[in-house]
Amino acid sequence: MRISLELIVVAIVILITALVVITIFGIGIQRASTLSEASNICKQHAAAACSVIGDGELPSTVTDLKIIVNDKEETCSDLLKGCKCSNRKLVC
Questions:
Q1: pLDDT digits over 40-49, tens only?
Q2: How many CB atoms lie within 10 A of CB 69?
Q3: Which residues fall within 8 angstroms of residue 50, CB to CB, at 6 or more apart?
Q4: Residue 21: pLDDT band by 50, 70, 90 thresholds?
Q5: What percentage of the chain carries pLDDT values higher than 70?
Q6: How far apart, in Å, are the Cα atoms of 87 and each of 24, 45, 57, 66, 91?
Q7: Mean pLDDT over residues 2-13, rounded?
Q8: Which pLDDT score is estimated for 25?
Q9: Phi-psi region of 58 (alpha: psi -120 to 50; beta: other; left: phi over 0)
Q10: For the segment 70-88, what is each residue's pLDDT rounded down to a tens digit?
Q11: Dihedral of CA 84/86/91/92: which sign?
Q12: How far is residue 84's CA from residue 90's CA, in Å, rounded to a whole number?
């Protein structure tokens, strides 16, 4: 009985660890059909980040985000040039 309980606990810990890793690195590369759509995706991520960090430059979690538009890879840093966080809002 004790071995079964230990196996269940180990399985749960492995599952939780896998879910955390997938959550952290699961964003990956998104796809968009137009540059406008890609820009909107970047702005949504940036606005969420700005609501947390307040003022300053956009964090790398936003600027490093990659989006494929018409088989060409774009980054949010290219699509959000000149944007920054001010008063917990995205300003472009």
A1: 999 999 999 9
A2: 18
A3: 58, 85, 86, 88, 89, 90
A4: low
A5: 90
A6: 26, 16, 12, 26, 9
A7: 84
A8: 62
A9: beta
A10: 999 999 999 999 999 999 9
A11: negative
A12: 6
Q: How far apart are CA 33 and CA 71, in angstroms?
A: 9
pTM: 0.68
Q: Where are the domains of the chain?
A: 2-91
Q: What is each CA distance from 32 to 39, 87, 89, in whole angstroms?
A: 9, 29, 24
Strands 89-91 and 84-86 turn out to be antiparallel
List Cβ neighbours of 77 (8 Å cut-off, separation of 6 or more). 58, 63, 64
Whole-angstrom distance, CA of residue 52 vs CA of residue 61: 13
